[in-house]
């Protein structure tokens, strides 16, 4: 500490008394670094003066952390909502944002303008070119699309929540997002918004990423000026859906691993062990037991006719998929699905939970009943339910209550209709729809867990029975052979 204080006093006095050209030879690396450490530890009124003098006298002796500070340009919002532009030196984008917030500004966009010499001469990785993606040729599963949609909408909600206009928020995401698909999505949405389209219209042009329910909710948010709350609800909906899929996959992962190992053992026994056992039995005049013969018969027929069965199933699925593209095929198959016992309950809970959740959000946001009903109809995926809801919508527009109209066309069961009727009578229709949503969604989660457990148990049971029969057949055949040899 004494050495540091001595170095600081020596340096400060030299800065005050001796002209700059004559002082340079007296400056050493040790003096400059000693003062720097002192100034960082004990800031004082002389810090700025002495440090400026240090930069004049020995610019090459300033610690590397200061000489390699990059320059960032920023665009921010002040407390009055006006934009402010400027530049600032900082070590990272995070430090720039923190500095702006400390000064009362809300950062909107931060870009690196220059990289100082000595730092490698390269720009930050986030400003490298992004791989081009053609959204029109993009093919995604629904689970992958939901993950991408959630990633984009979460960031969009954060910007809008902090007061940034929709167009500027999408433009900002286009410049910031580095994931190729999200970058292309932000670019295409920004282009559509620039041409006068609404966000809902732009999303409907990308059905691969945004399903009709999301587009309908966005449309309602734009119409009522409550886009921020609508985005928050959409994000909650997507998180719940993604979590449900994760729970199902997690529940199936262990049985799938057991099935894989069991089938491996089965194939080893059938195609390696059993032929040798049979050769041994034939050479010694023995015979396989009935259980072993049954397993071998099943395995041989599976290998012989299995490819044809799989091909027939694939062909049937392809024909059904093409038929569902027609209006009659879509209506017939959707109506048939609502008659299959287990699938019927799953579809009903899925559709009604989505319907009730969307209805509560739209009505809570102040959307007109007529417009809300149109959006609710677009959100239904099952064509049979959609046709019935269209008829119920006509009754509601004619003055009928929600509960009576939806119960008239068998959309709601008695319990749900009673909940909705009570909420209508008490003036809390939104609360009634929310209760129906939570009940239906909880039922859906329970059904999916039960279905997963039954499927896993059935598959494991089938494999264990098959392997058990095989083991019993082999053991019983060997025992029969040994008894015949010992008896002979």
Class based on secondary structure composition and strand pairing: mainly alpha
Report the biggest beta sheet as strand number plus sense, adding barrel if it closes. 3 strands, antiparallel
Distance between the termini: 103 Å
Kindly give the count of domains: 5
How would you spell out the order of helices and strands?
Answer: HHHHHEEHEHHHHHHHHHHHHHH
How many helical elements? 20
Physical arrangement of strands within the biggest beta sheet: 2-1-3
Radius of gyration: 36 Å
State the helical fraction. Answer: over 70%
Q: How many strand units?
A: 3
Strand content: under 5%
Uncertain stretches of 5 or more adjacent residues: 1-68, 114-127
On the 0 to 100 scale, the average pLDDT is 76
Shape call: extended
Description:
With 488 residues, the protein is mainly α. The protein has 5 domains: 2-66, no CATH class; 69-117; 142-240, Up-down Bundle (Receptor-associated Protein); 251-330 and 461-487, no CATH class; 343-441, Receptor-associated Protein, CATH 1.20.81. Helices cover 72% and strands 5% of the residues. The chain has helices at residues 2-17, 20-23, 29-41, 47-57, 64-67, 93-102, 142-161, 166-176, 180-194, 199-204, 212-224, 227-283, 290-323, 327-337, 341-364, 369-379, 383-397, 402-408, 414-425, 429-487; strands at 71-77, 83-89, 106-114. The protein has a 3-stranded antiparallel β-sheet, with helices on one face. Helix 7 (142-161) runs antiparallel to helix 12 (227-283). It is extended and about 100 Å long. The termini are far apart.
């Amino acid at each position: 500490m004494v050495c540091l204080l001595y170095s600081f006093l020596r340096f400060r006095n030299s800065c005050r008394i001796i002209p700059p050209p004559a002082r340079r030879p007296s400056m050493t690396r040790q003096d400059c670094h000693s003062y720097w450490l002192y100034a960082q530890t004990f800031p004082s009124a002389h810090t700025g003066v002495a440090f400026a003098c240090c930069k004049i006298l020995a610019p090459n002796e300033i610690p590397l952390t200061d000489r390699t500070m990059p320059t960032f340009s920023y665009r921010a919002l002040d407390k009055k909502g006006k934009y402010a532009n400027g530049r600032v030196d900082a070590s990272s984008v995070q430090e720039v944002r923190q500095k702006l917030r400390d000064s009362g500004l809300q950062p909107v966009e931060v870009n690196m303008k220059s990289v100082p010499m000595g730092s490698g001469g390269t720009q930050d990785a986030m400003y490298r070119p992004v791989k081009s993606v053609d959204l029109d040729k993009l093919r995604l599963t629904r689970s992958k699309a939901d993950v991408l949609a959630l990633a984009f909408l979460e960031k969009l909600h954060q910007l809008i929540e902090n007061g940034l206009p929709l167009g500027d928020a999408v433009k900002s995401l286009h410049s910031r997002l580095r994931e190729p698909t999200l970058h292309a999505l932000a670019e295409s949405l920004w282009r559509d918004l620039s041409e006068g389209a609404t966000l809902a219209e732009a999303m409907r042009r990308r059905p691969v990423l945004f399903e009709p329910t999301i587009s309908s909710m966005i449309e309602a948010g734009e119409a009522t000026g409550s886009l921020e709350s609508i985005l928050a609800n959409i994000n909650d909906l997507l998180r719940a859906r993604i979590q449900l899929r994760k729970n199902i996959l997690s529940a199936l992962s262990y049985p799938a691993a057991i099935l894989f190992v069991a089938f491996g053992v089965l194939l080893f026994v059938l195609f390696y062990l059993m032929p040798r056992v049979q050769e041994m039995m034939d050479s010694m005049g023995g015979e396989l037991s009935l259980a072993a013969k049954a397993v071998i018969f099943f395995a041989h027929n599976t290998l012989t006719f299995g490819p044809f069965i799989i091909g027939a199933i694939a062909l049937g699925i392809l024909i059904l998929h093409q038929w569902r593209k027609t209006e009659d095929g879509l209506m017939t198959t959707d109506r048939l699905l609502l008659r299959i016992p287990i699938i019927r309950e799953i579809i009903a809970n899925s559709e009604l939970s989505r319907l009730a959740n969307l209805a509560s959000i739209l009505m809570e946001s102040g959307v007109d009943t007529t417009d809300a009903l149109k959006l609710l109809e677009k959100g239904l995926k099952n064509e049979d339910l959609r046709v019935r809801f269209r008829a119920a919508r006509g009754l509601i527009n004619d003055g009928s209550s929600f509960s009576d109209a939806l119960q008239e066309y068998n959309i709601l069961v008695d319990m749900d209709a009673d909940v909705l009727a009570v909420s209508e009578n008490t003036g809390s229709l939104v609360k009634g729809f929310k209760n129906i949503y939570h009940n239906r969604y909880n039922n859906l989660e329970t059904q999916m867990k039960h279905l997963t457990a039954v499927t896993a148990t059935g598959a494991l049971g089938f494999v264990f029975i098959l392997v058990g029969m095989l083991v019993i057949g082999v053991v019983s055949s060997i025992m029969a052979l040994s008894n015949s040899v010992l008896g002979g």
